[in-house]
Predict the structure of Glycosyltransferase.
Amino acid sequence: AWAALGRANSGDVGARAHFVFVPLMFQGHFIPSVDTALMVATHGAVATVVVTASYAARVRRTVDLAAPGQPGASPVDVRVVALPLDCAAAGLLADGSDDIDRIPLGIGPNYFRALSRLREPLERRLRAAGAPYPTCIVSDFCLPWTQELAASLGVPRVCFFSMCAFYLLCQHYVDRDNALDGVVGDDVEVIVPGMGDKRLVVTRAQAPGFFRLTGWDGYGDAVERALDTADGIVMNTFTEMEPEFVAAYAAARGKKVWTIGPVSLYHRHTMSLAARGRTADIDADECIQWLDSKEPNSVVYVSFGSIAHTADPEQVVELALGLEASGRPFIWMVKSAELYGETVREFLRELEARVAGRGLLIRGWAPQVLILSHVAVGGFVTHCGWNSILEAIAAGLPVVTWPRFSDQYLNQKMAVEVLGIGVSVGIVEEGKDIVVGRTVVEKAIGSILDGGEEGEKRRKRARALAEKARTTVQEGGSSRDNLFDFVQSFRGE
Ligand code: UDP
């Protein structure tokens, strides 16, 4: 599908281009980066993805499954540069693994500092004879050292965001106008400046900015400087969904913004969909068979993404009992069993026995986009990671919003207040230790799957957005055009 897409796309607009992607290896950043690398490669460019050692196999697997070598199709050229990370300095596990999925919490400044020391070995690799010289560095906004890398190589650097323009704009306005200066308390609401007649309020806890906590020693300033001097911005969102925010963000930053999402839509077949990020802990066919046995729009999918987790035993129990009481079929991505004590593990086993056939628990990694795109799924209980929200939108699904940290609080506002496709469980900021009760869970699920007239309106809006998402990645759509323009802009001489 990839190669076919490439041929239909553009011929060889990117023939001389070499895009070097440097993702942050958190799944919510890494997955859309690899997808974007695949996308530029379909335009005939060479794409190199730079990772630490244990991620190399994941990139190769995603690339291989995305481009299954159809007869006569030219394979896409995605290469991998794997660099050894100083895991001890990074504060990772004692066993020397650089796989940060194995450390659910506690990735701190040392990890980011250890990554920044990859700059010199990476520059040597990119200058090595035999490899095409880079024409553009596309790196995560969290990696400010890549701006220096690009400057040293004498090539442009584009900043990659797996976030929506709405969130970035709100955060930018709050920072630029010091809207929270002098505000005492993390939960005091202020109006986001510059949003015109969209009266939008935030608290410090909802818009904490990037890397501003103690211990980061100026890292946040370095991130801001690197963004300020970048040669443009690539974003996993689409203009038809949030035109005014994309335009306002580009204007406020004084930069070209290429919106190229939803990147998940560039995967067209089961194997490719099931291979994003990690190997799923359920067989794709088994998952599809389970879904095939359910009525259309009847199943609710529950996931808190790759970082957040519901380790609090009381919360796990309330969520579980809410799902049980809802009477709906559900798939719940419960993450690794090791996160829980034996009592919770036993409770989950008993739950599974009670809801056998109706509830499916996936421990570890779920093939999320494969699940969301199945007709049996009717709604998504999400922690509001931007990729998850966008994947729900691409699938035309209403969401129950349950944010946990970072941009997720403003993403919740985007889903509920701006797009009108979400119902909140009532968590508005981090650090309150609120346990969401079973009846709240049950009611929220009922609202998105059924929910009377309001529910119908939400579903209609979600479906209309999905239609826009589908057309934006096709001929004449803005994401498709932007991708083409992006490749053309940095194809070198
Ligand atoms: N994901 C997945 N399976 C899982 C959990 C997550 O495929 O079991 C994918 C999901 O589809 C999304 C990404 O991982 O593309 C998570 O990104 P998001 O921004 O939603 O949340 P984060 O994990 O960064 O908090």
About this structure: The chain has a mean pLDDT of 91. The chain has 20 helices and 15 strands. The longest strand covers residues 46-52. Residues 452-472 form the longest helix (21 residues).
